[in-house]
Design a protein that fits this description.
Layout (H helix, E strand, L loop, with lengths): L1 E6 L7 H11 L6 E5 L18 H12 L2 E5 L2 E2 L2 E2 L1 H10 L13 E6 L7 H13 L10 E3 L15 H26 L1
The chain binds flavin mononucleotide (FMN).
Length: 186
């Protein structure tokens, strides 16, 4: 199984990118994950959304198309999701209802400095993914509050209990992705 991780933060040593890097090492056997950044993706402009898309967009769409599932890592910005992640999702959401995101299983992880761990951003992201027909794993969200205490200065997720929880969340996600694939083939 191949998963794709998309971080909504462009920050060097980002907590959210750090969560995805930790996730790569905590996956069940037989599952691999590659990461794609949103930094090179231009602002969505329908005039550019033609058959010949900007190269960074083409690569993003290809990566999503070939993944069995997507793990979004989302900073909470002003009680919502980051602009760069919303922009990437907007590109990936066309054509509506038949995009690479339609019916692509997704998981969402959030790390924030605040006390609720990005719960409001998580809720907004789930709402956005509703518009793209992207099902989100039916599990309690994986949130990291007070993230400054749980990452090393170079952005590694070092909280042992949190890493165990993340491994469990990813394991549940993988089981669910497999179940959806079985049901789709049935
Ligand atoms: C523009 C902006 C808005 C923010 N708004 C929130 C917020 O609403 N809630 C919150 O918990 N943290 C908020 N933060 C703090 C982020 O949680 C913090 O910057 C976090 O490190 C971002 O994730 P990253 O490390 O992956 O870049 C905000 C930060 C910025 C730059």
């Amino acid at each position: 199984m191949k998963l794709l991780g998309i971080s909504g933060s462009l920050r060097k040593n980002s907590f959210n990118t750090g969560l995805l890097e930790a996730a790569c090492t905590l996956l069940p056997e037989g599952v691999e994950m590659t990461l794609v950044g949103c930094g090179d993706i231009p602002l969505y402009n329908k005039d550019l959304d033609t058959d010949t898309k900007p190269e960074s967009v083409r690569l993003l769409l290809q990566a999503i198309r070939y993944a069995d599932g997507v793990v979004f890592a989302c900073p909470e910005y002003n009680y919502s999701i980051s602009g760069v992640l919303k922009n990437a999702i907007d590109w990936a959401s066309r054509p509506a209802y038949a995009s690479v995101l339609a019916h692509k299983p997704a998981a969402v992880v959030c790390a924030s400095q605040g006390p609720v761990g990005g719960a409001r951003g998580h809720a907004h992201l789930c709402q956005v993914l509703g518009a793209t027909l992207t099902p989100v794993v039916p599990a309690p969200p994986f949130l990291v509050p007070a993230a400054g205490d749980k990452f090393s200065s170079d952005g590694r997720y070092v909280d042992e209990e949190g890493r165990r929880r993340l491994a469990r969340y990813l394991g549940d996600f993988v089981v669910w992705v497999k179940r959806l694939a079985r049901e789709a083939g049935a």
